[in-house]
Every structure is written in structure tokens, then in C-alpha cells.
């Protein structure tokens, strides 16, 4: 497929996804709780997911950019700090005692330090972050590739999704997010610990954030503390697979 056609289709999906989410951002949260409206939104989400995976192969890469394209300012949105005293103490020590917990439907539950994550197969990529609020920025990310990490802990056959549990709190609830295994094993899906060749700053999710480059920004969970493999999202919090999804956003935000 010619690159310009790929990009035009990708831009169409970006605009479509942003437009749909903009309805919720525009003060329609109560409307989104209506069962009939939620059914329509869920149907549209399924069409978006099917369309993206039809138009773009499972291995298709999000566009990557040269260093000259890096944004002079990359806005930090959502949570920009974590008030939890344990997290604040970890910041003071450079996250020396921090551990990523990996559990759920895995053969070998484990905990990994930041140093151990840095020794895993890694990837560096310069990509565009598209926010549902309508802005974009280009940043350089380095992190552990999620696919090889999952292979090392041994996903059980019934595992279908990964849930990312985070340290930050919004509206009184701990943030969480989820992706399926297609996106988890994508080449560009990483657990980023560096941004623009420096350790990930606190406003951008230190010490670790998810980068799933073919989805909108709210899927890229910050302050990741635990990764859980599950068979279903139905019993997880509001049952829709993420903090914002439980409040009416689409679970699949592909671009």
C-alpha cells in the first residue's frame, strides 16, 4: 500500500476517533450513560477496531519521524504527579526500590526492578502522540519491548488482555488501562523508561509508561506499577477496561 494512502487512512481514523471522543469531552457524559447511546457507541467502536485492523495489518507500524521533528514542548496531561507517599519516596531515591509486578494468567509471576527492565530487549522510536483533546506532539521513547517480556513470563492459553495498574489517582480512583494481545505483541508497543534520551520525567509517568503507538494518548498509561494478564475485562472495575472507558470513552482507540 502506498505510504500516502496509508497515512491518509490513518489520519481519517484519527479524526474519526477524536471526533467521537470529543462528543464526551463536550459535556455529554450523562448522555453517554444512556443504554441506547452506549449501545451505539459500542457498535461504532467495534467498527473502528475492525476497520483499522482491516486497513492496516497487525504488523503495520505507526509513522516514525527523524530527530529534527521532535516537538520543542511535549505537553503532559492527565495526572502530572502522584500524591502517594510511597511513590514520592521512590522519586527521591531514583526509583531504586521500585518494582514492576507481573501477574495474573502467567506461568511465572515476577517483579522487575527498573535496572532489570533496562536490560531487556529494547526499542527506541520517535512517534506522534495524538491526544483525544485535539493536540499532537512528537517525542522519542525508549523502553522494554512488551512482546519479549510477555514471552519470558509465559502467558497462559486463556489470557486475552493485559491490564495496567497505575499509581496515580483521578476522581478518587486509581488509574488503569488495558490492551489486547494483538497490540501487546506489536513491534512498537513498549514500556518506556526514557523520553528524549533522558529518564522519563514524573509529569510523563516515571518510572514507566505504556506506549502503544497505534492508539490515542489516553491508552498510554503512566506510572505503571503492575501488569496483569486476564481472560476478560468484564469483572475489572466498571467492566469496560479502563479508567476513561468506564466513563464512556471507547476501549479501542486505534489510529
Label this structure with key terms.
10 strands; 255 residues; 5-stranded antiparallel β-sheet; 5-stranded mixed β-sheet; globular; disordered N terminus; Sulfite Oxidase, Chain A, domain 2; alpha+beta
Describe the largest sheet: 5 strands, mixed
* Alpha-beta classification: alpha+beta
Beta strands, count: 10
The CA-CA distance between the termini, in Å, is 17 Å
H/E series: HHHHEEHEEHEEHEEEE
Q: Please name the CATH architecture.
A: Alpha-Beta Complex
Strand content: 25-35%
Radius of gyration: 18 Å
Arithmetic mean of pLDDT: 84
| CATH level-four homologous superfamily name | Oxidoreductase, molybdopterin-binding domain
Helix content: 25-40%
Given the structure, what is the number of helices? Answer: 7
Shape: globular
Poorly predicted tracts of residues: 1-45
Strand order across the largest sheet: 2-1-10-5-6
Domains counted in the coordinates: how many? 1
Kindly report the CATH topology. Sulfite Oxidase, Chain A, domain 2
Describe the structure.
This protein is an alpha+beta fold and 255 residues long. It has a single domain, classed as Sulfite Oxidase, Chain A, domain 2. It has helices at residues 3-25, 29-32, 35-55, 85-92, 114-118, 146-153, 181-184; strands spanning 99-104, 110-113, 122-130, 136-145, 161-170, 173-180, 190-195, 198-199, 209-211, 224-230. The longest helix is centred in the first third of the chain and has 23 residues, at 3-25. The two termini are 17 Å apart.
Amino acid at each position: 500500500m502506498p505510504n500516502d494512502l496509508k497515512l491518509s487512512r490513518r489520519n481519517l481514523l484519527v479524526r474519526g476517533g477524536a471526533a467521537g471522543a470529543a462528543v464526551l469531552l463536550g459535556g455529554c457524559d450523562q448522555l453517554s450513560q444512556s443504554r441506547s447511546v452506549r449501545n451505539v457507541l459500542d457498535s461504532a467502536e467495534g467498527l473502528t477496531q475492525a476497520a483499522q485492523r482491516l486497513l492496516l495489518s497487525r504488523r503495520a507500524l505507526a509513522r516514525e519521524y527523524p530527530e529534527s521533528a521532535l516537538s520543542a514542548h511535549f505537553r503532559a496531561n492527565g495526572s502530572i504527579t502522584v500524591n502517594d507517599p510511597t511513590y514520592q519516596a521512590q522519586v527521591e531515591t531514583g526509583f531504586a526500590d521500585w518494582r514492576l509486578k507481573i501477574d495474573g494468567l502467567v506461568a511465572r509471576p515476577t517483579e522487575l526492578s527498573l535496572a532489570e527492565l533496562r536490560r531487556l530487549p529494547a526499542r527506541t522510536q520517535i512517534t506522534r502522540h495524538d491526544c483525544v483533546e485535539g493536540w499532537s506532539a512528537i517525542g522519542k521513547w525508549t523502553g522494554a519491548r512488551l512482546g519479549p517480556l510477555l514471552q519470558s513470563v509465559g502467558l497462559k492459553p486463556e489470557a486475552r488482555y493485559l491490564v495496567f495498574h497505575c499509581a496515580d489517582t483521578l476522581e478518587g480512583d486509581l488509574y488503569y488501562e488495558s490492551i489486547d494481545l494483538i497490540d501487546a505483541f506489536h513491534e512498537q508497543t513498549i514500556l518506556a523508561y526514557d523520553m528524549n534520551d533522558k529518564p522519563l520525567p514524573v509529569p510523563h509517568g516515571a518510572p514507566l509508561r505504556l506506549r502503544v503507538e497505534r492508539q490515542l494518548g489516553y491508552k498510554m498509561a503512566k506510572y505503571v506499577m503492575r501488569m496483569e494478564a486476564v481472560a476478560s475485562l468484564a469483572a475489572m472495575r466498571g467492566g469496560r477496561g479502563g479508567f476513561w472507558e468506564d466513563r464512556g470513552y471507547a476501549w479501542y482507540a486505534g489510529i
